[in-house]
Amino acid sequence: MTELKTDVTAGQAAPSDAAPSVAAQEATRIFDVGKRSRDELDALGRAMRQNHAQESHGNWKPDPQRPDPVAILRSQERGRVDELMPIRYGRMLRSPFAFYRGAAANV
Question: What is the pTM of this model?
Fold first, then answer.
């Protein structure tokens, strides 16, 4: 049986013997903190901000085939005790970590 590991750049599982993705290799090359001084990393960050302005981050559009996250949460309500759902959502509101724990199906 092939052991799986998660490729955090792609968000998908990949066989452990698979080569790291191009994005993972690039990130490792650029941000290898152990091999670059703090000044080099600062300069690199400033240069990257010139190529990728913060305003461009707001241009993200979800994939049209992406499932609705609220619909996923609502579908999980089936078969649960109705009186406990407000407690569940209240707990999810406390912090991002609690939200992701309660919304694991969305991840």
Answer: 0.45
Same domain, 11 and 38: yes
Tokens 């939200």 correspond to 99
Residue-range definition of the domain harbouring residue 11: 4-59
Half-sphere exposure of 19 (CA within 13 A, CB side): 5
For 50-64, write each residue's pLDDT tens digit: 887 777 777 778 888
Structurally, how many domains does the chain consist of? Answer: 2
Query: How far, in Å, CA of 68 to CA of 88, rounded?
Result: 19
| Secondary structure class of 48 (helix, strand, coil) | helix
Which two structure tokens, joined as six digits, stand for 42? 């600062």
CA 54 to chain centre: 19
Cα separation of 76 and 79, whole Å? 8
What is the phi/psi pair of residue 21, to 5°? Answer: -65, 160
Q: Provide the pLDDT for residue 11.
A: 45
Q: Is 64 contained in some domain?
A: no
Q: In 3D, which of 28, 31, 23, 25 has the Cα closest to residue 47?
A: 31
